Automatic annotation (TrEMBL):
Residues 1-12 have a biased composition (Basic and acidic residues). InterPro entries: RECK, RECK-like_N. PANTHER family: REVERSION-INDUCING CYSTEINE-RICH PROTEIN WITH KAZAL MOTIFS, SERINE PROTEASE INHIBITOR. It comes from Daphnia pulex (Water flea). GO terms for molecular function: metalloendopeptidase inhibitor activity. Signal peptide: none annotated. This is Reversion-inducing cysteine-rich with Kazal motifs N-terminal domain-containing protein. Residues 1-28 are annotated as: Disordered.
């Protein structure tokens, strides 16, 4: 695990590491970047960091899934406000001007949409697979979305949760429900 080091000498907190020092971000140290390029092709680096942030983010940061979006802000003050937030709030909107943080707010909106959509399933495996798809899509810096393996896993895990398949159809590329799908009474 590589901790972000870019704010270590920023002077914030009188020698104490800032909140950003404890977040997982792509390395800013030139030697670490060279090592990463020599061991990991560039095409895999974004996928690696998205996976790491998705996996560790919710466990490390508690229940607020929006923290995985914080590194998308180019504004340090906004990143810090985002990391300190316990939920999306007016405080975050006051610290982070939308015009300067479009990727951040797009990510936060997609995470909220995912929380609502994935909660429609009574099946914990479906909720987890669904959340993974939303998180991977939201935090993709390129905006290219996610790979087919995650989509397939979510489609399989949620095959008996047509409400989830319906609300996530744009992310899962589901045009129609499988013929064998039966509606679980818990899903209504």
């Amino acid at each position: 695990m590589i901790l972000n080091r870019k704010n270590r000498d920023s002077g914030h907190g009188r020698g104490r590491p800032s909140l950003m020092d404890h977040t997982l971000l792509p390395p800013t140290d030139p030697q670490l970047q060279r090592d990463m390029v020599s061991h990991c092709p560039p095409s895999m680096q974004e996928v690696f960091w998205n996976c790491l942030n998705i996996t560790i983010g919710p466990k490390h940061d508690g229940d607020y899934l929006g923290r995985q979006c914080c590194s998308l802000s180019p504004v340090h003050r906004c990143q810090t406000a985002c990391l300190r937030a316990k939920q999306y709030s007016e405080d975050l909107a006051n610290e982070c001007r939308k015009s300067d943080n479009m990727q951040l707010f797009q990510c936060l909106n997609l995470i909220r949409e995912g929380e609502e959509c994935c909660s429609l399933s009574a099946d914990s495996k479906c909720r987890k697979a669904c959340s993974t798809v939303y998180s991977a899509t939201a935090t993709s810096a390129s905006g290219a979305g996610i790979n087919g393996t995650l989509r397939h896993a979510a489609n399989t895990a949620c095959s008996r949760s047509p409400n989830v398949l319906q609300c996530a159809k744009n992310l899962l590329k589901v045009d129609r429900l499988p013929i064998s799908t039966s509606i679980d009474p818990k899903e209504r």
